Amino acid sequence: MPDPTDHHPSIGALISREVPASLAECRQLIDEVDALLAVLLEYRATISARVQQLKPVGGRAGRDPRREAEIVDRMARWAPRLGPRRLRRIMTAVIEESLDLAEEAPAAR
Ligand SMILES: C=C(O[C@@H]1C=C(C(=O)O)C=C[C@H]1O)C(=O)O
Q: Which residues form the Chorismate mutase domain (predicted)?
């Protein structure tokens, strides 16, 4: 799989910066990263809501553990320090909250 930052050079530039030495700078960088995470999580939830409408059985009833495991394994290649165990916990929360949202607010058709 190609390096995801190949297609998103500004993200590559962001993460190749040295981790700052000061508390204020670290927090500023965390705020910048968190804003990106928020935008991406929101977008991911929107796509997931669409998928629930496209699958024969959507929502929690159509949960697909094999697909979720593949997602975690693939992500672990790009987040080796977090590793599969932590990523599984993170992504389970992301996926469950997205499915929850999709039930509350289905994707616009
Ligand atoms: C989005 C899907 O539905 C569910 C949600 C997933 C996700 O948010 O990545 C993955 C698998 C399914 O449990 C899917 O089947 O692709």
A: 17-106
**What's the rounded Cα separation, in Å, for the pair 25 and 93?**
29
Q: Which two tokens stand for residue 43?
A: 């977008």
How far does the centroid of ligand 1 lie from the alpha carbon of residue 5, in Å? 23
Say what the ipTM of the complex is: 0.98
Q: What is the pLDDT along the chain (109 residues), one digit of tens a residue?
A: 789 999 999 999 999 999 999 999 999 999 999 999 999 999 999 999 999 999 999 999 999 999 999 999 999 999 999 999 999 999 999 999 999 999 998 777 6
* Domain 20-104 annotated CATH 1.10.10: no
Q: Could you tell me how far CA 80 lies from the centroid of its own chain?
A: 15
- 101: Cβ below 6 Å to ligand 1? no
